[in-house]
Amino acid sequence: MLLALHLAVLGSAEKFYADDPLERIPAPLPVKKLETRKLNDVYDLFENTFAEPGDRQPKGKKARGAKLIPAQAVNTLGEVPDDPAWFTNRIGSRPMSIEELVRGPGTDKPPSMDGPWQIVGAKTSGVTPGFRIKDSTGELYLLKFDPLTNPEMSTASDVIGAKFFHALGYNAPQNYLVHFKLDQLAMGKVVTVFDAASGRDRAMTREDLILLREKVAQDEQGRFRAVASRFLSGKFLGEFRYYGTRADDFNDIVDHEQRRDLRGLFVFSAWLNHNDSRAINNMDLLVEENGVSFAKHYLIDFGAMFGSASVISNTARDGNAYFWELKPALAQIATLGIWSPRWMRDSYIKHPALGMIEYPSFEPEQWKPNYPNPAFQNRLPTDEFWAAKRVMAFSDEAITAIVKEAKVTDKYAEDLLTDYLIKRRDKIGEAYFAKVLPLDEFKVSEGRLNFEDLQIKYGLVDNRDYQVEWSSFDNSSEEHTPIAGAAGPRLPDSASSAASGSFIAAKIRAEDENKTVLVYLRKDGSDFKVVGIERTW
């Protein structure tokens, strides 16, 4: 219980509850039964647009003198510990090879081409059809296609979107690009489809499959291109909301709107223009891992990212405005349409394989999903810094390699998407490293506290001078006592005679700035180690 308390309160208290900063949370407690809760997407839209669910940051008059709500599910270093249910530290926390980034959630289980794919479920209505199939090995997949107007667009987005979000630390499905001819599909047992003419379900026929040629593009060889998303194992539990917790899951103890991994998801979504980052594109499954059953939370359905809106190309509104915003609407009415927001006047690039994209006018702070997200709206500069570190950890080479996995046929489109992501990445670093003192990688070596300035590392500033003030820290009373004469990165002379288990703290400030980083060190034997970090802005 002490470790659970450690996770729940860190960020709001200085006291250290564990011997070391947690690298992973304790194994989940076994859960046998959880109710399936299917979320209504229309209700979710209206609730988040016209109400404010969850516990929100104070704003307006309420913000005067009020305490901000710090992120939770973090350790004393401000990092999100590994948690099989939610998040696993990958890029930005440890080195990742290009091969590992390209592999993403996995590349070992593509649908087998030996034998037909049995259709076990179908959606034939709407802009693009979709099928649930079983291959000859018995594996289940969801087949998703591109709209006729934009061949390659949503499939490209879905495949590389899963790789990006997996690298960023989230649970994501294995998505495979497949090319096949119509005779690869076979009718399984009775499959029902909705008949628009009668308004009722009916049995699917071979003629429904033949009509696929009219709704989905084919290449010169008569093949269809699709994403085969491998079915995730486990019992479907519905979707998770971006606020509150599941009342029936005693592993789910931190309100979702306060989780750093969900607050920071705003930055990742802004970078990739994942404006469809809403609850209906999440999935909870009851899984069993290492002999323990628990609820595992996934991000799914990445077909509406970059310039894609899945079944159509993006519009200028996507990523720039909510579905419904009162003030801009009133402004246009008052000016008889003369006034228009900046994003309506910007220039965009359209390409059939990408949809509509832009980056010259991209402003990370101004980016918006399709409708308000409680976790996104609760984010603080420390949440943004945590996320921006991970975005900036993607090298040009890594981005180039992942984009190649989209396998778009036009090299110009591939280069355009790569350039788009690199330039938006750089804007993420510029925006969020400037909001805090962006020091990281704190280590004690040869009697000095060493660190890295991420703005200098990524060429965003040339140089910077720092002031360091030292104090002793009482972990019981949480009181600081200044150490006279101690300044600069060298540890105080008195530290060598300090008792094992005692704490000292270094407050680092850049000249002419009020932003600080407070670094806590604990003595273990004869050595000091960094055990806590706090940031002000």
Short summary of the structure?
This protein is α+β, with helices and mostly antiparallel strands and 537 residues long. The protein has 15 helices and 20 strands.
What does the model show?
- A hairpin with a 2-residue loop joins strand 10 and strand 11 (292-299).
- Helix content is 23%, strand content 23%.
- Helix 12 (381-392) runs antiparallel to helix 14 and helix 13 packs across helix 14 (411-433).
- Residues 1-14 have low confidence and may be disordered.
- The two termini are 32 Å apart.
- The protein has 15 helices and 20 strands.
- It has a 6-stranded mixed β-sheet with strand order 4-8-3-2-1-5, with helices on one face.
- Among the domains are: 2-93 and 237-296 and 314-332 and 370-433, no CATH class; 439-536, Immunoglobulin-like.
- The chain is α+β, with helices and mostly antiparallel strands.
